[in-house]
Amino acid sequence: MAINTSSVRVAWITPLGELLAPPRITAGLLRLLVQTVLVVALWRGLYADTEVKAGLTREQAVSYAVLAVLASRIRNLDRSASRDEVIQHLHFGTIVYWFLRPIPPQRYYALRALGDQAYGLIWLLSGYALCLATGVVELPASPEGAAVAALSLLLGQWVLYYVMLLIDLLCFWTLRNQAALLILVFAQNLLSGVYAPLWYFPDWFITMSGFLPFQATLAVPLSLYVGRIPLHDALPQLAVQAGWVVLLAVLTRLLWHRAARRVVSQGG
Amino acid sequence: MSRVFHTTVRRPGLRGALRSLVSPERVAKTAVEDVSFTVGAGQLLALLGPNGAGKSTTIKMLTGILTPTAGEARVAGVVPYRERERNARNIGAVFGQRTQLWWDLPVRESFAILRDIYGIGEPEHRARLEEFDELLDLSSFWDTRVRHLSLGQRVRCDLAGSLLHDPPVVFLDEPTIGMDVVVKEQVRGFLRHQVERRGRTVLLTTHDMTEVARLAERVVLINHGRIVLDGSLDEIRRRFGGTWQVRATLTDSEACLDPLPGIALLRREGAQLVFGPESGLQGGERNTPTAHEALRRIIERFEVSDIALEESDLEDVMRAAYLRADATVGSLASTEPALRSG
Amino acid sequence: MTTTVRGPAVRGFTARRSAMAVVWRITKLTLRAQLEYRTEFLMMIVIGAVWQISVIVFATVLLTQFSGMGGWEAADVLLIAAMRMMAHGLFVLFFGRVQYLTQRVQEGLIDVCLLRPMSVYRQVQLNHFPVNAIGDLIVAAGLFAGAIARSSVEWTPGRIAFLISGVLGGMLVEAALFTALSSAALHFPAASYWSSWLEELMGTFGNYPLNILPGAVSGALTYILPLAFIAYFPAGVLTGNGSALGVPVWVAACAPLFGLAGFIASRLLWNRSLRHYTGVNG
Fold first, then answer.
1. CB of A80 within 8 A of CB of C103?
2. Across the interface, which of A46, A53, A180 has its CB nearest the CB of C47?
3. For C282, which residue in chain B has the nearest alpha carbon?
4. Does residue C282 lie in a domain region?
């Protein structure tokens, strides 16, 4: 994908909308702050009488939970207020314009998502710096651990992109899947380990989520960060993440093709 | 060019809905059948027809969104649904109230995004915006976010947005729907300018007959997915709107009333004579004179002290045309097509 | 004489009955409309099953891992989670559409509703049938049965009545919060952002005894965002944890009344907001 003005411009659409609406940034900041405070309070409260649970110490659990809150911010933009979700474009019929421009809809979608995620990453990094400074989050055990966690986070975001794309593509077939969407978002939150680290769950649950892509988005990078997955076990985990990227890339490519054909056969 | 859609029919009632869940019943519906026309470069063609006649389907096939079931379309030499992206550079499109602008951004930002997507140079972009601003008065609201614009403002912005990349062919699906008269007139002026000065080819669908009368040199009438008529407005008037009457008071009331070709004397009302088209009230024959022709012939033939023309207006003509679905297909070919479907 | 006295009362009764008939008829129609979207309907049933399992697993996981949370027995904590979920399911069934008011406003639905001779709020609720509420309620019922079976509370008629009113009160608290938020949605599309946050907060913090949190935080979840009234207070009263709720027991016991009052207040706010409704652009 050649980097040119049009790509940058398209990627910039959502961040621009955000920057032009300062109340939205304030709201995001407030929400993130409150959520972090609450999560820290919750996990410290839960660990009041315990030292170690499921291999996680209090500090590890708090670091994990806070980073989960920050990381979920990466793709937590509210596009619906901007009437810019795929489901809304389908609903209002404005999806036709995606097919009337000299940029393929797939590419347009990918660029938009890239911009969203890059913008979210800035939030993550600023929040992370603040949490480090206030001592809420601990540094990873080693520089190697940090590097592996960063790489894993990148792969995780890549998987997340495909999961979101999959959800959006489903809208082409089920126009009113708002509820299904909520359920999938919920599944993503639960099975990716945003609500609670997967380590607390029963073994069968961990095994099951091993077969699903969700844990690859957050649980793996965060576990690597806090050291719950030791460095010498990192490679297979990274391989699984990469495997999901490839698999989902093929699947979504196929679905895009069929979604486009569907627009072409129904006229959007 | 033809297009068949497959849809699922729902059975009535809650039980029917549950049954449809298990075994949907599918039917085929032909939206467009053998629609065939060409449009010359720099022409404005109005695609008319009642709701559901197949206008939008035709436009979608020509913009590359839909693939025809049978037949072929070419827009500026490109088969739109086969080379969608190449076609996209050649065309601009506005679909009624659906906006292509980004809801949350000021209009000018949307224009900038489109500029980069289409790869337009900055000086060119600025010059074009200036031109559009002059005609459509955009600068008074183009720093507003799209969500805060009124309908008329938004559609004007959409029109500008669709022409930013200087497309030779433009598709407008009911662009003036819901606009007030002032804005409508502004948009018409803009479209006329685009056709006459910029030489763009415009394909327009509308239900506004004043618009058709003001803008369209040529009209294609579609009904039930077929072309009913392809010609000028006068031709439509002649075929479907023969319901004119000419009231004339002759200076010499005893003048000998020889029959005029195609014109019949309907009745006398005192000193007034009432003429109408021959053979009943309906036109449709090629040799039936239009109201204006009849007026001319009557004045040439008789010495008239007072004359008035009562013509059925365009809306009546269109109503007659829409209702007569059985009418035969007429066609006019033009040279050098900018757009061809068949 | 009799007729003149009883007339208005009877008319009021039949009017209310026919209003209910209209509500029922529209609900049936909207359910049928949901059935139109075949793939979605079927998909929701499939995904719903997966979802149910995950929710119950999630609720029980923390309980088994961190038993004795805030001095509460695991079975009692489970009751908080069950009551909250039941209240939430009922909320989705009866009031859930306020959450999506922003979309309805954007579609211009409010303008349409204002033209019809029925309460706009009710029309919003009747906009579509909440198929997801079925899933919510099934999960909630399962969890509820489990919690009741494991709890050591002796279920006297009085306690059962309080349990039911507690759940209904919880539903009303949730309805009040989302209704109040949606009065802002009539004017500001950004309200949907807060609405989704509120839902997230409830999902995350509604299921535990709030006394595990520092006083300032649990106070905020009582007095600023009255999350505590949804399930924590009534469950605390029922399970005998009433002394450590951060408020006097009688306040906690009045949670259902608080819900009712809150809902009425939020509806008044909503109506007020509707009077100032100016519509979507132009």
1. yes
2. A180
3. B150
4. no
Residue A267 inside a domain? The answer is no
How is residue B139 written in tokens? 């600068």
Q: Which residues neighbour A62 within 8 Å (Cβ) at sequence distance 6 or greater?
A: A40, A43, A44, A47, A136, A137
Q: What is the pLDDT of residues C18-67, one digit of tens each?
A: 778 888 888 888 878 777 776 667 666 666 656 666 666 766 777 778 87
CA atoms of C154 and C163, how far apart (whole Å): 12
Q: Residue A102: which domain range?
A: 2-261
Nearest to C189 among A38, A81, A177 (CB): A81
Check if the beta carbon of residue A115 is closer than 8 Å to that of residue A201: no
Q: Domain containing C159: what range?
A: 16-275
Does any CB of chain C come closer than 8 Å to the CB of residue B152? yes
Closest residue in B to A262 (Cα–Cα): B66
Q: Where are the beta strands (DSSP E) in A9-115?
A: 52-53, 56-57
Has residue B342 got a pLDDT over 70? no
| Residue-wise pLDDT tens digits, A79-123 | 776 778 888 888 888 888 998 999 999 999 999 999 999 999 999
Interface contact B66, partner A, CB < 8 A: yes
Q: Which residues of B271-289 are buried (b: 16+ CB within 10 A; e: fewer)?
A: eebebbbbeeeebbeeebb
Q: Is the pTM of this model over 0.80?
A: no
**Chain centre to alpha carbon of residue A115:** 13
Residue C8 lies in a domain: no
The answer to whether residue A187 is domain-embedded is yes
Nearest CA in chain A to C92: A179
In this complex, is the C-beta atom of C44 within 8 Å of any C-beta atom belonging to chain A? yes
Biggest CA pair distance of chain C? 71
At C215 the three-state DSSP class reads helix
Q: Report how many domains make up chain C.
A: 1
> How many domains does chain A fold into?
1
